[in-house]
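Give me structure tokens for this 269-residue protein.
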Amino acid sequence: MTLIETKDLTVRLGGAEILSGVTLTIEPAEIVTIVGPNGSGKSTLLRSILGIQTLASGSVTRKAGLRIGYVPQRLHIDRPMPMTARRFLSLPKRCTDAQATQVLSRCGVAGVENRQLADLSGGQLQRVLLARALLNQPEILILDEPTQGLDQPGEAAFYQLIEEVRRETGAAVLLVSHDLHVVMAASDRVICLNGHVCCQGAPDVVRDAPEYRALFGFGTQGALALYRHDHDHNHGPGQGVPHQHGPDCNHDHDHGHNHSSAKKAHDHV
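Here you go.
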């Protein structure tokens, strides 16, 4: 049974159209990675799926009783306010000490129960956020750029953990990423968003496709971590399916990694 389905989802904020006609499905146990430039509507799409963003038109359908675990892009912590990792895990729903110990250990941060959230490293904090999401025994994990601010080994290790969790629990994963070549190997499907669905497909299909290479900058200068993906055209009726990128496409790229570092990150997954 499909977990989540959006149909012609459109969002307007301040008179501007942020998302237009986004149609997609998330199936049980699959990992779907959403990529796109800053301002492309990735976080807005997640908020729409979670039901906290008002739609201008279209619909979001979630499986009845769907259990969702959410890991935000970042957690703003007020340093003067004491908050241990253990206390955080019991908000808003209380968990037992045994549950807390088990889930923290599973996420690779055993022993941090009594540490203040403000004193944790970025990687430790993201793992605590993941642990809290897993307490709900989710059918789907929704993660909004969960590795932003982590170094390359930290990113690779976190994504490997997500893949292990998916394999062990059967939970689906909907992930917004800023660094495609780290998550590519574990993703079942990649969706490129830029206000609308530009293109999508299984990684093993799109990885070697000329349009994928043009889109994400694979070539003599290696893989690309920082990129701009700008469109100056309309996709028309075929919107939301892979398309051939011709001379009417405008893809500007900022090359941010050499080939060896990108390959190293990819191999960690």
